[in-house]
Amino acid sequence: MIKLAIGATVPQTIRAFYRGQLNYLVQHNYRITVITAPDPTLRQELPAEVDLHFVDFSREPTPWRDLKALVHLIRFFRRERFDMIQYSTPKSTLLCAMAGWIAGVPCRLYCMWGIYYSALDGRKRMFFKAIEKWVCTISTHISPDGKDNRAFAIAEGLFPESKSSIVGEGSANGIDLERFDPEIHREQGAEIRRQLGAADQDVVVGTVTRMVRDKGMAELVRAFEKLALEQPNVRLLLVGPREDHRSPLGPDIWKIIETHPRIRWVGPQADVPAYYAAMDLFVLPSYREGFGIVNLEASAMRLPVISTDVNGPRESIVPGQTGLLVPVQQIEPLYKAMKKLASDPALRKRIGEAGRRRVAESFDAKKMWRLWDEHRMRLCGKK
């Protein structure tokens, strides 16, 4: 048996990236403890065999809270004597890595699902790069979620190649093809389209992400605004939470979102596949991304994908086959890509079908869970 702790700053990371995998691990001789910020509903969403330990994590720099959380984790790790801890997301990664190192946890796995400083510049970039390198130094192994991020990190001197590996073809958890099945959610998608006021011939452009600037939401809204002037049958569906505390969208963008007759923001949704089923094409114009898992989800739902040509997203699609890549932070290329797909239903269908096939071949969650199991076993010296 492997005694494993999984750390994440916020519960949403557990919901998004460990759905299904926790059940698999429990059934394959793991004793699991999930470590995350307090959440009153998370306990009932996890398998009964999984232990849950809340820590007062905050996403923003809070020195006193962070110090208390670090001391708490050191004591917890010393008491529980885990075989392995794995961590992702910036604050959890920093504190779990430090606590695990001090407490002497033998295997400390950094799941590098994105590199925060890569979209920064100046002193802020230098500061967060130093933190990233420190975390990599005190971790015993690093598993980036894609080839681009691994190559970038090695080139940046964050860790030597020998200290890292990618599981399968990448991604954090793979895609549950039974959950992300367009046929299962067809009726729900049709109902959501009716609620949007979208006719059968209308083209619903959609995204699923946080409503913040570094996800490219300003560019998406501006590009759609231009497209809507030319094509009266297009609509924009925005799914995800509003977060004004980090990389906020300006009041000008929110005014367009709230007043444009063909833009609808529905906030975060639990039943995400149903909202994919309401879309005709998917867009993620992010400035930085770990792998672009929502791009794979959209592909599994037979949607053509438009994303930015940056580390992560460029691995989640095959340009011209399962989607289109556009330059980051540019409105005009994004508008042209959206126009191309919105105007050609046959192209959307061909690309969407190819996307579903690719996800089934390379990113099926059940295959990924088995590969992650083998990966952990090797790192712990069990195989």
Task: Give the fraction of residues assigned to helices.
Answer: 40-55%
Number of helices: 16
Global shape: globular
Q: Architecture of the largest domain, CATH level 2? A: 3-Layer(aba) Sandwich
What structural class should be given to the helix and strand makeup? alpha/beta
Order the strands across the largest sheet as they lie in space.
Answer: 3-2-1-4-5-6
CATH superfamily of the largest domain, by name, is Glycogen Phosphorylase B
Q: Quote the distance from N terminus to C terminus.
A: 12 Å
H/E topology pattern: EHHEHEHEHEHEHHEHEHEHEHEHEHHH
Number of domains: 2
Task: List the keywords.
alpha/beta; 383 residues; 2 domains; Rossmann fold; 45% helix; six-stranded parallel β-sheet; single chain; 12 strands; globular
Explained architecture:
The structure is a single chain. 45% of the residues lie in helices and 16% in strands. By secondary structure, it is of the alpha/beta class. It folds into two domains: 2-174 and 365-379, Rossmann fold (3-Layer(aba) Sandwich), CATH 3.40.50.2000; 186-362, 3-Layer(aba) Sandwich (Rossmann fold). A six-stranded parallel β-sheet has the order 3-2-1-4-5-6, with helices on both faces. Strands 9-8-7-10-11-12 form a six-stranded parallel β-sheet, sandwiched between helices. Helix 5 packs parallel to helix 6 (122-138) and helix 12 packs across helix 15. The longest helix has 18 residues, at 63-80. The radius of gyration is 21 Å and the shape is globular. The mean pLDDT is 94.
